[in-house]
């Protein structure tokens, strides 16, 4: 019973940390409504990851359009490496404890890294339109 309580506490803390990081209002309300239920939280994280992935793809396309041919090649290669890194990095969480928190931590890692990369790529086109 104690282990379950700790898992629920960590899951709730993970969800609270995610909320503070500038995600969609829908995500925040979804997490509030989940009441710490793992399945519902995973559904919220999955939906937000899809939104952030769409942002990432749009930012990637916009950045590619703004870059020179040389920069485009570098960005393409970097993006491929970043995807491999993200997936490898987040897979570390998959069986870290053997509990349900692993699924939440893995999903949260994918969400956090996808959002961060979308933010990063958006900054390329925001900084200097003549890239």
UniProtKB/TrEMBL annotation:
Domain Lysozyme inhibitor LprI-like N-terminal: 34-121
InterPro entries associated with the record: LprI-like_N
Pfam families, A to Z: LprI
Coiled coil: none
Source organism, top-level taxon: Bacteria
Protein name per its UniProtKB record: Lysozyme inhibitor LprI-like N-terminal domain-containing protein
